[in-house]
User: Fold Hexosyltransferase from Staurois parvus.
Amino acid sequence: MKPNFLYLLVTFLVTVIVLRTLLFSEANQAPTVTAPAEKVVLRHVLPVITDYPVVKCVENTSTQNFPDFDGQPQNMKDFLTYRHCKSFPLILDSPMKCNRVNGSNDVFLLLAIKTAPENYDRREAIRKTWGEEKSYGGAKVKLIFLSGVSRNKEKAKRMMQLLEAESHTYGDILQWDFEDTFYNLTLKQVLFHKWMDLRCPGAQFIFNGDDDVFVNAVNVITYLRGLEFDGLQKHLFVGALNIGMPPVREKYSKYYVPEQLFPGDYYAPYCGGGGILMSGFTGNAISRESARIPLFPIDDAYLGMCLKKAGLSPDNHEGIRTFGINMPNAVDSFDPCYYRDMLMVHRFIPYEMLIMWKALKFTTPNCKTQIVNRTKPAQP
Ligand SMILES: *[C@@H]1O[C@H](CO)[C@@H](O)[C@H](O)[C@H]1NC(C)=O
Ligand SMILES: *[C@@H]1O[C@H](CO)[C@@H](O)[C@H](O)[C@H]1NC(C)=O
Ligand SMILES: *[C@@H]1O[C@H](CO)[C@@H](O)[C@H](O)[C@H]1NC(C)=O
Ligand SMILES: *[C@@H]1O[C@H](CO)[C@@H](O)[C@H](O)[C@H]1NC(C)=O
Assistant:
């Protein structure tokens, strides 16, 4: 009797233990499966920014205080309504672009190109030609594209997928969560300088330009090296200089600025936004001043205001042509000789970039006459 009872008890206990173990291990199964799954997911998670102070942008409800607000074009109304918003989250980041903060001292030149989300072909052309990330005899060049979000919601969704894919492949996209419009270009510029402070403070020089410019990278490096100074210690801001430029008052113009916003007759001297070369020192000064100067709809004129406030001045460089080169008639405007001595020329479409890059790189142009002055270091 007794052994039988014991046998039953033992069997019962064993069954309970086995069942419990089975149940327990089943309960445990979820984590053991999700662990590797989480790893897989992580590879596709794009860097999320947490170290930027992000304030949700609330529209200005007292815009009626702006004289003749209702008479302004819609884009100017949008500008005035959101002018105070200077902080937007990054949707796509490139935190390792400059090899962390300490590694960024190795970056000689950072190419920071303003681009609209849909301009995929321009970005590709730049990556394949003058924007290639490489070292020019020890001078390390890095490339980054600056973008916002398309205004149209449907388009924005599609374009975000495009930029995400590009970011995944090349790691060269910065995308902020604001509408990528003309009057928001200043916002793009200011956020770029903030990003520099955080991710790439050691870069010596910055080329800041549009995605439809052709840059003779070799000439740019030669010019910057010829300056023989530490970009983190000295001021440099060169491009196509505008002095005494009056604000455009015609409402239909892309560059329209109402008198109520800027009563002056002339902007402070500034360089055309198509292409500007600046030192890390000056980029830093702009970042500092922009915190104190309200946003302005014209981005390059805004940079002039920042420089003025910092007590720095922009300079002209013969080799930077934001309005293209004026060719004599009956001359092939595609003659590489015209571009041999240039640092940067505006208005190139993607296939032209490719042709010109090859022409400059693989043929030694037998140029007889000198069309433009050779690029000499401008004395800042
Ligand atoms: C809102 O707009 C009015 C009129 O332009 C301006 O005076 C005011 O400073 C703006 N408020 C903020 C918070 O920017
Ligand atoms: C970067 O450099 C600073 C100062 O030289 C040092 O304190 C810091 O630990 C460095 N950070 C990393 C991640 O190496
Ligand atoms: C700038 O972007 C903000 C945020 O997306 C938007 O609300 C605003 O309308 C834009 N401003 C202009 C002038 O397009
Ligand atoms: C070249 O430079 C000289 C002297 O600096 C100047 O007088 C001349 O106008 C320049 N030529 C062109 C084509 O810019």
In short: Residues 22-50, 375-380 have pLDDT under 50 and may be disordered.
